[in-house]
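Q: What residues go here?
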């Protein structure tokens, strides 16, 4: 789990560091892209979890009603 967290934070850090060597505009673009990807990934993950939870809850209610 520790290795996963290190990789999770290190990969965007390294890409932003490389973009920083190219220039300020590239650094800003890389930072915005990483932020947007992270937020979108969390939103999609939360949405899928919510859909799964609602689906399982509905399935459980259908089983009890039979």
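A:
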């Amino acid at each position: 789990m520790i290795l996963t967290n290190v990789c999770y934070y290190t990969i965007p850090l390294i890409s932003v560091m490389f973009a920083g060597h190219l220039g300020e505009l590239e650094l800003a673009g890389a930072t915005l892209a990483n932020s947007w990807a992270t937020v979108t990934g969390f939103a999609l993950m939360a949405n899928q979890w919510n859909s799964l939870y609602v689906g399982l809850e509905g399935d459980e209610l259908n089983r009890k009603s039979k």
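A: Context that may help when evaluating the design: Helices lie at 2-22, 24-65. The first helix runs from residue 2 to 22.
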